[in-house]
Amino acid sequence: MNEQIRIPEIRVIDPEGKQLGVLPTQEALRMAEELALDLVEISPTSRPPVCKIMDFGKFKYEQSKKARESKRKQHTAQLKEIKIRPKIEEHDLQFKMRNAEKFLNEKDKVKITVVFRGREMEHLDMGRKLLDRVVNSFSNIAIIEKDAVQVGRMLSLILGPRSEKKGS
Fold first, then answer.
1. 142 has pLDDT over 80
2. CB atoms within 10 A of CB 161
3. Which residues lie closer than 8 Å to 147 by C-beta, 6 or more apart?
4. 28 is in which domain, residue-wise?
5. Helices and strands, counts by H and E, the chain
6. Are residues 89 and 145 in the same domain?
7. Are residue 51 and residue 18 in the same domain, yes or no?
8. Do residues 159 and 139 lie in contact, with contact meaning Cβ atoms separated by under 8 Å?
9. Of 19, 38, 126, 152, which residue is most buried, by most CB within 10 angstroms?
10. To 10 degrees, the CA torsion angle through 96, 102, 104, 105?
11. Domain CATH code at residue 136
12. Is residue 168 part of a domain?
C-alpha cells in the first residue's frame, strides 16, 4: 500500500475500475494523492503487479461487514439429547419424539438415550426395540449418524438431519 510498494513499474486501475496502463510507481502514487485516495497492491504476483487507486479504510470496512454478514448466516449444528426409559408411556414418548422432530427440523443433531435402572438392565432388548421404533418414525427426516452403543446403564444413538438434495 502507498509507499510500501517497491517495484518501479506497476499496472494501475483507477477508482472506477478502468485500466490506466503500466505507469511508474511514483506517478501512480502522485495520482492517488491528488484524488486523496490510497494506492493498494491487488495482485502482487503478476508481472507487472496490479495496483488500484481506492479508499483503503472504506475497503477494509466493507470487507469486515461482509465477513460479519456471512458469519451471521451460518448455523452451527448443536447436539440435543433426549432421555427416555424403557418403560416410557406412549404419550410421554410421543411428546419427546415431537421435541426431537423439532430439533431435527432446525438442523440440529439429536442424541436419543435410553436410561436403564436396576433390574431393567436384564432387558436391554426392550431398549433396542424402543430405539428402533424411534428411528423408524424419523426415517423420512433423519439419518443415523452413530448407531446404538451401550455405555454403562445407557444405550444411545445419534440422529442427524437428512440433507435435502438440491435441484430435485
1. yes
2. 19
3. 157
4. 2-72
5. 4, 8
6. yes
7. yes
8. no
9. 38
10. 160
11. 3.30.110.10
12. no
Residue recorded with cell 439429536 = 110
CA-wise closest residue to 127 among 135, 116, 119: 116
- Residue position matching grid coordinates 419424539: 97
pLDDT, tens digit, 9 for 90 and up, residues 75-94: 777 899 999 999 889 999 99
Is 16 in a helix, a strand, or coil?
Answer: coil
Q: Which residues make beta-bridge pairs with 110?
A: 80, 159
In a domain, 167, yes or no: no
Give the residue-averaged pLDDT of 118-137.
89
Rounded Cα distance between 116 and 93, Å, is: 16
> Is residue 88 domain-shared with residue 66, that is, in the same domain?
no
62/104 same-domain check: no
**Best CA proximity match to 112, nearest among 94, 90, 91, 134:** 134
DSSP codes of every residue in 12-79: EE-TTS-EEEEEEHHHHHHHHHHTT-EEEEEESSSSSPEEEEE-HHHHHHHHHHHHHHHHHT--PPPE
Query: In sequence order, what are the residues at sequence separation of 6 or more whose Cβ sits closer than 8 angstroms to the Cβ of residue 126?
Result: 86, 87, 120
Evaluate whether 100 touches 139 at the Cβ level (below 8 Å).
no
Predicted TM-score (pTM) of the model is 0.55
Long-range contact set of residues 56-64: C-beta below 8 Å, sequence gap at least 24: 56/1
